[in-house]
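In response to a reviewer's request, we include the raw inputs and outputs for one of the modeled complexes. The two entities were modeled together in a single run.
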Amino acid sequence: MLEKALTGSRRYWLWICVLLALSGIGFIAYLRQFTYGLGITGMSRDVTWGLYIGQFTFLVGVAASGVMLVLPYYLHNYKKFGKITILGEFMAVAAVTMCVLFIFVDMGQPMRIMNVMLHPTPNSIMFWDSVVLLGYLMLNIIIGWTVLGAERKEVPPPSWVKPLIYLSIAWAPSIHTVTAFLYAGLPGRHFWLTAIMAARFLASAFASGPALLILLCFIIRRTTRFDPGKEAIQTLGKIVTYFMITNVFFFGLEVFTAFYSQIPGHMHSFEYLYAGLEEHRVLVPLMWTSAVLAIVAVILLINPATRKNEITLGLASVAVFLSLWIDKGFGLVIGGFVPNPFETVTEYWPTLPETLITIGVWAAGFLILTVLYKVAISVKEELA
Amino acid sequence: MSINRREFLKIAGISLLGFGGASAVKKHLMGDNWVEASEVLRSPDALTAQQWAMVVDVRKITTMNDYKKIVEACHSIHNVPDFRNPKDEIKWIWKDTFEHTFPTSGHPYMEEGIEEKPFLLLCNHCENPPCVRVCPTKATFKSKDGITMVDFHRCIGCRFCMAACPYGARSFNWRDPRPFIKKTNPEFPTRTKGVVEKCNFCAERLAKGLEPACVEASNGAMVFGDLKDPDSEVRRILRTHYTIVRKPELGTRPSVYYVIGG
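The model returned the following structure tokens for the whole complex.
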């Protein structure tokens, strides 16, 4: 089936070239990081994780959210999603691949990464995270490819794939729960030490991932002869609405606990992110952008008229995606490190090479996404 | 599908090799000569303990020179580089204010002079260390003597331990440290870029029967001993003085104690 990705319009090849160029630039920047060390990034002794781990965290959520298409179809027989579950599965494949790449570029000694497998350490959450992520990647590749292959031959999918699908439905929340546990079990990092971290992660994941799917559906409808279906997109819109509201609610719970209890450690990170601590306020504009986008998105989504209108639904999806990208891909990680264990502030901002590497990984992920979607949609176009 | 006896044995053999995996291969290659690193024999001179601990008597460290001497004693023998910028900084032992050392213990009306007084900070070699719990490769581990160690050759540089340490005790080699070491001590390894490091309670000196370098340089202001031995000097001080540890509320059980006043 892969050969279908080798034929396409000029526009398709132009897009592929752009992605290849961006990945290439990222790769060259990575070679510089590889020789110099991670000191080439904005990270420091006090802020030891930055943009890379933020993107990783955000993208695990995007990957997990593929289940929002798979679950209604397979567990509730919601037929409208039947045509597009493959979009969820292939998005998950691209997102998990980006996660793996972001972890790789964040390693101080990348050539030793196999030590995680050579010396398996069950008490480390990072060990479990690599297990669940690789498992989820395999599940989605196998399921997506098999079901699509059967569809192409116009036969029902083989029966052995059903149990794998059910497994993948249970597996999806697990990848994001385990990722939340990376943060939520660390003593002394008040911003992360919260029991609803995993719940918050899942809520934001099931808002941001489907928001991206809505946008991808719009792009597919404009650029190909395959229509994901108006009703399917509307249902995705409702999913985004409920989970975005849940996410904002969970955030409110965090703010209440911190500021009603008045425990300084619990308030400091929020103060740093949204008001700045003394003269340290680098992230304040970014965090307020996220907050405003979240409010705009919720208004557009709750109002039935703006949710049903595809233009405003598209705008709301962009707002949800950007808001949560800032919140989770940036604020969540940096906020945990500020203030540092000595209650002083070291700020963080990514450097140019770090940004280029990040863009490069995103480009590589979108390259995988484009190729997989091209295959899937070509199959569907043939059948139509 | 049916398989004959021959095929069955072949598959069974391969599976066995897979499951028995690593240890079978090791045995086969190394025979009886296979030993674990932990089996290495101790020198008869070595100092041993169940849980090494330290008491820092802040009253006895008064001049800036005292601090400099202690920090220098450690950093020079452990090949700790000096980058002269906080972003790349690597430190095993250093000084900071009361407010930063004990951020949850102070109040605005403290005893005069304590705000300016510097405190020595180093790895707490916790009895229940979060850094060891999170390390995905066992590169950070508890030694038999209760020292929290780092294997510079196994560390993958994920920095999970740095996020987990509530004491900011760990440093990362953001770049090649070797050009920034003033004078290399050939007795102790230098580090490569991309690995985490920190105080090791001078495990290499204890193995030779010597006390930690900082303790030696402190003129009796720092005392070292076995926390689990009721007759040790450390326990005697803990019995007779009011001492505090950093962030006890986190349950890490630090092994570095501070005598503040009185």
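As requested, we also summarize the result in words. Residues 193 and 220 of chain A are 41 Å apart (CA to CA). The two ends of chain A are 17 Å apart (CA to CA).
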